[in-house]
What we know:
Chain A has eleven helices and no strands. By secondary structure, chain A is mostly helical. Chain A has one domain (25-136, 147-248). The radius of gyration of chain A is 22 Å and the shape is elongated. Chain B is mostly helical. In chain B, 83% of the residues lie in helices and 0% in strands. Chain B contains ten helices and no strands. Chain B has helices at residues 2-39, 45-54, 56-84, 89-109, 111-120, 131-170, 175-197, 206-209, 212-222, 227-237. In chain B, α2 (45-54) crosses α6, α4 packs antiparallel against α6 and α6 (131-170) runs antiparallel to α7 (175-197). The model of chain B has no long low-confidence stretch (mean pLDDT 90). At the A-B interface, α5 and α6 of A face α4, α6 and α7 of B.
Amino acid sequence: MEAQAKTRIEPSIGDPKAIQQTVESSPRYKARIAGVFEFLEGTVFTFGQVVILGKIVVSSDAAATAHNILANETLYRLGFAATVVGVICHIVWVFLFFDLFKPVSRNISILAAFVMLVGCAVQAVTSLLYFAPLLILGEGSSLSAFTAEQSQALTLFFLKLNGEAFDLYLIFFGFWCVLTGYLIFRSAFLPRILGVLLAIDGLGWMIFLSPPLAIALFPFIAIASGVSELPLMVWLLVRGVNAQRWSEQASEAGVRAY
Amino acid sequence: MTTRTAQTSLPIRARVLGLVYLMAFPIDLFGFLYVPSRLVVPGDAATTASNIIASETLFRLGIVSILLGQIVGLLVVLALYKVLKGVNNNIAVLMVIFGLVSVSIGVVNEFSQFAILLLLHGPDNLTVFSAAQLNSLVPLLLNLHNLGIRIDEVFNGLELFFMGYLVFKSGFLPRIVGVALVIACFGYLIQDFSAFLFPNLAVNVILLTGWGELIFPLWLLVRGINVERWEKRALAAA
């Protein structure tokens, strides 16, 4: 151990490169970047899954939905691309949250990261279902043996499947919120109330284990989401984390601050 | 004693990694290119369907080889993590994370090829569809499979970006290999996002940009890594 400590390269004070590195890797900086990616992911994913689909899908009318997709094909493709970019942003902030909460509990933060990575893979699969209508309706579609009505019905079927897959993702997201809420509560560097709210929010999303119940309770789930996820994101963006307490907790836990 | 073992075995491990990494190429080419080239006739759903039924074993071998390729990819990224984590542990973790998501997408994506077999072996409830209708669903599922490959490539590409960065910064592998890997990443991103957004553009750059993915494993196999510099790096990071 001692030999190892000796070989460690100590950055000399005043070395601009070393200072630069400290600034870039400080917990506060990481927390802010995590907030930025959380915001980006939320924005582009909502744009693709909620705004664009909300404009295009007429839930009881397959013909109108198909017509809307073809009439706004570029917009629809943009919505799809946004969901893929959203998954990328999501992976980045999963990693940053993992890194941030390692000092609180290495095991729980690893578990949270694994849960959310499975969620990211599910999100990517929803993108696939999102795109399927273009393969059915677009130029060069193979489905000439189907009537227009049948193709349109198939389109709506894939969009509903996309919705189901998204609900599945929400369950993983909910579980992640519960775990992360616990980590925030136990952390010394973020306000405990944010953790409590996030855990309650997570339990709300986990109601999607039973989609009909979740749809019935959706206003409450949405409120829980609004009063927990938004404040956390704003807190991370504006305040970051308490860097001094983070370092204290990190050295207690034996986590090396990079 | 343990350091001595590490010293003697590291070059061998790097070469084995290179070999395993290279093995992914024939496996992937078989599943992604050879099998479809034998079975899929673009624009002809009926012939494609009958080809798949007639050469079902080949079709299944294609699926299995793709799944095998994903397992190889998983082993490679975990082994690469051990080699590269001394350069920058955070970036190495990001490389692994993107690799894991890419593998998950790649595995789930084979559902659409299995769905083709389920359709063509028509359980009774599918008799409400005409044969022509069932056949025409085959190209749809193949297109869905291709789209899944493209989505997968985005994440695989970003994995290559972090890999290239680490190779570039490592000092124990040539910088040019790192650059080639980053170029491969941008090749995938350009090709896939242009396909998502501008389907009529048909940008095809992978043959120009993808060389890093071949050069890196070849380098690992033929030249290995500079062990002296690797150990210096590992000690500095410990």
